[in-house]
């Protein structure tokens, strides 16, 4: 059986990966106490030596986008330096490295969905650190998968969806940015597709198509459109809201300034993933519906059955 090491087991994606990867081999799920990516490369490699995995799946990251503007050194240590150390270890030991990146590596201009070979141009410290991590992997580890995604959410952990549900029950007025466009990506979907890719790698390692792929649901929306749809569906499901979803106000990013610049265009073209592996991606609303159902009916979902993505 393959030994599969997961970093960041308590995060949104790490939580779901433990479910999706469990049937594929012996799982070694680590948290910051067991594998701290802010430590030196030597310490990271020593930790990997102790576990000696065949596959490393790395969802752990410095994701405090605004804090990174004043703490770029730590962001780089976790998102770039540590990733380089993991990639070098994976190459020496012949292990597969699966790593997750972000739409923030692009400059956010235009309206066309970003392709994997488009020129990058991150506009934030977080984006620069994630791009540096990608480059470190490509330099050191030929056997890798880099999966770029966007707007990750899930039933576990903190995210926009859960924040909007809370605010919708507390406030009778909300303002949400309407000029940033992308697709909300469920952590469960990312984890399930990761499992499919690893399953294919284990079956045919010699002919596997390593490289960088975009992974996001079909369709697009703004943060405002996302919030309106979510709270409309929550109201239809019986959740008592203080706000009428139709009254959520859309505002430009300029009215909600933050330390880090957000991409206006977070659209990701996923044709390469679908054409290479035959994976059909669902429309973004289906993921919102599934997570909302899980949150509003915890008893019915306590067993966490496998997801079915149309």
Task: Explain what the structure shows.
By secondary structure, the chain is an alpha/beta fold. The protein has a domain at 2-159 and 183-219 and 267-283: NAD(P)-binding Rossmann-like Domain (Rossmann fold, 3-Layer(aba) Sandwich). Helix content is 39%, strand content 15%. It has helices at 12-21, 41-51, 72-93, 125-140, 160-170, 187-203, 223-236, 271-277, 284-296, and strands at residues 2-6, 25-29, 55-58, 96-102, 144-149, 152-153, 175-177, 181-182, 185-186, 211-214, 221-222, 249-251. Strands 2-1-3-4-5-10 form a 6-stranded parallel β-sheet, sandwiched between helices. Strands 6-9 form a two-stranded parallel ribbon. A two-stranded parallel sheet has the order 7-12. The longest helix has 22 residues, at 72-93. The two termini are 30 Å apart. Mean pLDDT is 95; it is low at 299-310. Belongs to the dTDP-4-dehydrorhamnose reductase family. Its EC number is 1.1.1.133. Pathway: Carbohydrate biosynthesis; dTDP-L-rhamnose biosynthesis.
């Amino acid at each position: 059986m393959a030994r599969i090491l997961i970093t960041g087991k308590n995060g949104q994606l790490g939580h779901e990966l433990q479910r999706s990867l469990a049937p594929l081999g012996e799982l070694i799920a680590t948290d910051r106490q067991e594998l701290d990516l802010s430590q030196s490369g030597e310490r990271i490699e020593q930790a990997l030596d102790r576990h000696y995995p065949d596959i490393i799946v790395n969802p752990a990251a410095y994701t405090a986008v605004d804090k990174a503007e004043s703490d770029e050194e730590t962001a780089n240590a976790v998102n770039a330096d540590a990733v380089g150390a993991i990639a070098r270890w994976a190459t020496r030991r012949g292990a597969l490295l699966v790593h997750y990146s972000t739409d923030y590596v692009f400059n956010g201009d235009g309206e066309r969905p970003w392709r994997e070979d488009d020129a990058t141009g991150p506009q934030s410290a977080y984006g620069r650190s994630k791009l540096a991590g990608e480059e470190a992997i490509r330099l050191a580890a030929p056997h890798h998968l880099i999966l770029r995604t966007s707007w990750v959410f899930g039933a576990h952990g903190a995210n926009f969806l859960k924040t909007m549900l809370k605010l919708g029950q507390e406030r009778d007025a909300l303002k949400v940015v309407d000029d940033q466009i992308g697709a909300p990506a469920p952590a469960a979907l990312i984890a399930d597709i990761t499992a499919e890719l690893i399953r294919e790698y284990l079956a045919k390692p010699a002919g596997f198509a390593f490289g960088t792929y975009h992974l996001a649901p079909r369709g697009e929306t703004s943060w405002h459109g996302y919030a309106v749809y979510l709270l409309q569906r929550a109201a239809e499901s019986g959740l008592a809201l203080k706000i009428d979803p139709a009254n959520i106000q859309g505002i430009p990013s300029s009215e909600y300034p933050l330390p880090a610049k957000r991409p206006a265009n977070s659209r990701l073209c996923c044709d390469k993933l679908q054409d290479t592996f035959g994976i059909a991606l669902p429309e973004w609303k289906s993921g919102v519906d599934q997570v909302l159902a899980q949150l509003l009916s915890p008893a019915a979902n306590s067993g966490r059955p496998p997801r079915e993505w149309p």
